[in-house]
Amino acid sequence: MTPSDAPRNRWSDLDRPPLNVPALRRGLLRPGGLWTSLDVVETIGSTNSALARRAADGLDEGTVLVAEEQTAGRGRLDRTWTAPARSGLFFSVYLEPGDVPAERWGWLPLLTGVAAATGLARGAGVDTALKWPNDLLVTVDGVERKAGGILAERAGDGVVVGMGLNVSLRAEELPAPTAASLALAGAVSTDRETLLRAVLRSLEHWYGQWRAADGDAAASGLQEAYAAGCATLGRTVRAQLPGDRTLVAEAVAIDGDGRLILSTDDGLQEPVSAGDIVHLRGVGGGLV
């Protein structure tokens, strides 16, 4: 049997060790904290889909499901998300902000983006920018590239929020020229346990502040924090809007409902609550 024929196991790639579940539970599950359970599975289709199915039958808030590998991960607009086993963070959490008006729940993916950027700055030493509404960008060789994404969907009495983040992907493993990983962005650490703890602790902090403010993004500081870290603002963008309408305009603000405000050449301002946004050439270079 040649080395290439040898069966692979969870320790085959020593640069990508499996997550230590007991250590993660000790570090994240505590009385009175947000996170109530944490499970890691070797492989799964989609952590979001799995949690959404469980939520339909009733699920405790603060449930965390992590996968070493996703085979059918999903992004916005039903895009797929795949990566080599143990090369990133692939996880979903179940949140149930029942005391917050439902019309404010749309802030949850943006909140998760702020939490991820904050946590990764501490845990990986990488500046992570936010592309409205749910992408995580890093800079590689002076160019902005996508390293991760966030997907939130209603489930049961709450919301399942999932994240896929490229951590240790090598250049030859990237799914597209516009993709990146924390390693390629010069991360000081690619230890996934450290990064997962940092992101989940940051998410617990921001979610707690947001709920304490009754979901008011301005009062909780979330609106200001998102705008400060949003790479979309101040850029000319192309927005593919519902109804097959395309708009090229400058992104000028994030309003109190989490919508992106676009300013057109004729001086009109249009709030966008859903759509596919492309950063046109400008800051950082390239198209994202």
UniProtKB/TrEMBL annotation:
PANTHER family, sorted: BIOTIN PROTEIN LIGASE, BIOTIN--PROTEIN LIGASE
Species this chain originates from: Streptomyces pulveraceus
MF (Gene Ontology): biotin--[biotin carboxyl-carrier protein] ligase activity
Keywords recorded for this protein, A-Z: ATP-binding, Biotin, Ligase, Nucleotide-binding
BPL/LPL catalytic domain span: 27-211
Protein name: biotin--[biotin carboxyl-carrier protein] ligase
Pfam families with a match to the protein in the record: BPL_C, BPL_LplA_LipB
Domain of life: Bacteria
InterPro entries found in the cross-reference section: aa-tRNA-synth_II/BPL/LPL, Biotin_CoA_COase_ligase, BPL_C, BPL_LPL_catalytic, Transcriptional_repressor_C
Enzyme Commission number, as recorded: 6.3.4.15
